[in-house]
Recover the amino acids of this structure.
């Protein structure tokens, strides 16, 4: 990909909504060269793809836009993982890998971790509330979700920062291009994360606990405590745990960042929310609809199919745009307007649908609700800093979030 193509692709990912609007208005599907895929942008078409997992495989769901260098691959070969996870598996394999995540993120488990999430959120705000200003993404949005999913998984708090960093690096390696040295350094961070997680899965085999890591080991590698895990089992378990942790913290980080951004870009709505915190549940749904934290995932056709009147041969890649579906006027009147008083009629697709619907959606909602209650109560005068550059979004469709969010009060 040359520099001009890269710039065009980055611009599309920083603001994909004009492209989405053109694709929804077009007849059939729109092929987007920058993504080398057919864009699925209408709500009805997105729903159809998600309801047909046998025809639209998830095998390439996280295919990156750049291929790491041979040196980076060599480093990655020293780590663990590299196996299908619940996001990229299909059929019976997907159900097998997803089942322990569903149990680990049950309503009861989420309820148990909420008091910790609330306490940790208060501590984070305490650390900057007296400063009069903060860069929210680094000081709060990238920290709370990692601490919470680390707690659910059973990680030592001392290991969480390295694991969170490794998760961010794993996403970076797939998308924005880096030079060879950057790819190698990023790969080393990923391997360090995987080695930490391998230690946990081996420990939980020998000494089970009440945490999601134990749930994964018991479900995917059953056996007596005195029987060590095989190397293949360790690879699979690290892949599943890595997927859970990355999805758990990156998605929620993105949702916190975009929600606060859009509220503060509409000061009247922020003021309304501070006066009426009972609106928080409605704000969460409107924010997720308006700017989905997970914008799009890839699917690959397993046979010749037709979608929206477009013939797709077997092996065709489609980009299923949850973010585009949220702005579909067929379901959401005045879809480009952020309105916390919106009456949510049709269910938005920000957290997916069907077999691959996000199992952590309720946990994400709980953390965003805690955040909004806390910020409106303790920092009602919050506003975007006017002495900093305009907010820019990260150039990725996986976890859409501000690169930085400078706030004052």
């Amino acid at each position: 990909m040359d520099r001009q193509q890269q710039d065009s692709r980055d611009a599309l990912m920083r603001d994909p909504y004009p492209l989405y609007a053109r694709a929804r208005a077009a007849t059939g599907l729109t092929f987007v060269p920058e993504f080398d895929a057919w864009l699925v942008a209408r709500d009805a078409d997105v729903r159809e793809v998600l309801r047909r997992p046998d025809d639209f495989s998830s095998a390439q769901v996280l295919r990156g836009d750049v291929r790491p260098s041979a040196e980076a691959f060599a480093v990655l070969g020293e780590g663990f993982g590299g196996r299908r996870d619940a996001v990229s598996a299909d059929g019976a394999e997907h159900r097998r890998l997803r089942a322990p995540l569903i149990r680990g993120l049950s309503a009861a488990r989420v309820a148990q971790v909420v008091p910790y999430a609330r306490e940790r959120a208060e501590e984070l705000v305490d650390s900057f509330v007296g400063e009069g200003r903060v860069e929210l993404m680094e000081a709060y949005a990238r920290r709370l979700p990692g601490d919470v999913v680390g707690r659910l998984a059973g990680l030592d708090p001392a290991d969480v920062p390295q694991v969170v960093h490794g998760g961010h690096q794993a996403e970076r390696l797939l998308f924005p291009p880096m030079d060879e040295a950057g790819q190698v350094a990023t790969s080393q961070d990923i391997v360090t994360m995987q080695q930490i997680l391998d230690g946990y899965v081996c420990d939980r085999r020998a000494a089970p606990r009440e945490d999601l890591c134990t749930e994964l080991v018991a479900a995917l590698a059953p056996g007596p405590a005195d029987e060590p895990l095989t190397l293949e089992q360790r690879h699979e378990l690290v892949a599943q745990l890595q997927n859970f942790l990355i999805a758990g913290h990156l998605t929620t980080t993105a949702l916190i960042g975009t929600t606060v951004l859009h509220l503060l870009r509409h000061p009247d709505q922020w003021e309304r929310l501070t006066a009426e915190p009972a609106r928080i549940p409605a704000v969460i749904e409107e924010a997720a609809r308006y700017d989905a934290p997970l914008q799009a995932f890839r699917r690959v056709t397993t046979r010749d199919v037709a979608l929206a009147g477009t013939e797709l041969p077997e092996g065709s890649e489609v980009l299923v745009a949850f973010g585009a579906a949220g702005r579909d006027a067929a379901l959401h009147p005045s879809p480009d307007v952020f309105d916390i008083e919106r009456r949510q009629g049709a269910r938005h697709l920000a957290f997916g649908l069907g077999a691959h619907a996000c199992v952590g959606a309720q946990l994400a909602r709980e953390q965003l609700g805690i955040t909004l209650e806390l910020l409106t109560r303790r920092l009602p005068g919050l506003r975007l800093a006017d002495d900093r550059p305009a907010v820019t979004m990260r150039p990725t469709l996986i976890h859409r979030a501000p690169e930085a969010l400078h706030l004052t009060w």
